[in-house]
Design goal:
The structure is a single chain. This protein is mainly alpha-helical. The chain has 4 helices and no strands.
Amino acid sequence: MGLFDKLLSGQGPESIKLNEQEGFLGVLLVTIAADGEVADEETQSLVIACQRSELLGEYGPGEYNATFKKLADILRKHGVEVFLTKTAEPLSPEL
């Protein structure tokens, strides 16, 4: 194992682990941004969906900010295909 292997280990898509809340928010986020734009109405719909969700009932503003930052980092580093795969993994069939 070389120097760069050690530095980059754990940085690949296989190391990404999301919980159910993060997966749910990721799916919502990618849905509203699918056309490349996020309109104010879409943002409001996202907020309403989050507020109505039992899954996210305990989430506070700080948790939303941290989760959206984490999700944006995954999307930026690994692309849409990995993002979609990783956000879907923790979700139950009902979701």
